[in-house]
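Morning, I've got a small favour to ask if you have a moment. I owe you a coffee for this, so here goes:

…
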Amino acid sequence: MVAKNQKQALAKVLVHEGGYVNHPKDPGGATNQGVIQRTYDAYRKGKKLPIRSVKQMTPVERDDIYDRQYWDAVKADQLPAGVDYVVFDGAVNSGPQQSIKWLQRALQPAYTGQVDGVMGLATLAALNATNNHDALVDRICDRRLAFLKALRTWRTFGRGWKARIDGVRSVGKAWANGSDAQTFGFVEGGQAKGTIEDARKAPGKGLSDAATGGGVGAGGIAGAVQGLQEQLTPFSAAGDWITNVVVILAVTGAVLTIGGLAYRWYAKRREAEINDALDLVTS
């Protein structure tokens, strides 16, 4: 990697991050130029300095935080041009561990290790074995977009996130093949933090189990009523209404059972999709 890429990458990130924001639905809370208040507090404490608003963060502090917390955390100096910026921007937006997971998923099948968000020797070896960095940037950005779509906050910040990823993808691919990158501007919402804590929950299976159980139960009752009809028919001309009850119970049981099984299939499939988007292991 060329050393100057760090400053160039940070300049691009800062365009996406904008200035001070404190959106009520942003899990990052109060944020200035991409640095959240909690991160700034930890930085100041580490320097044995008094806590203050992230609004007061200086450019020197900002650059130091980006260097230590994000650039070094993803070992960007060891990444190829273009890939370094893409992984760095993802780390700022969703955390270093998550951004490394996107890289690891994008490197498969060359990468055969655990998707653990650790930039270890296996990840770097797989990266060194991958020659088409242009295509790799595309896969990383695709993984990132799928992850953000699986968050509850997608409806609020999705437009901004999509614009941010489009810009990151374009610059990353340009740097990967040595061409000039296009410029882009700030899009509201793109600076919001996208973290796994805001992931959507998979549909519950309780409703399907209840429906299936109800269907089985209705079928059992229908059988019992039919048995009663067989006993009463020789002594009564009222067997028709019992027949109707049996039919209704049987049909209701079938509908509940089929509906319950169908919903369970949907819930299981949706759970697998969400787990895949969030880079979680499906049990």
Observations:
- The two ends are 38 Å apart (CA to CA).
- Residues 275 and 281 are 7 Å apart (CA to CA).
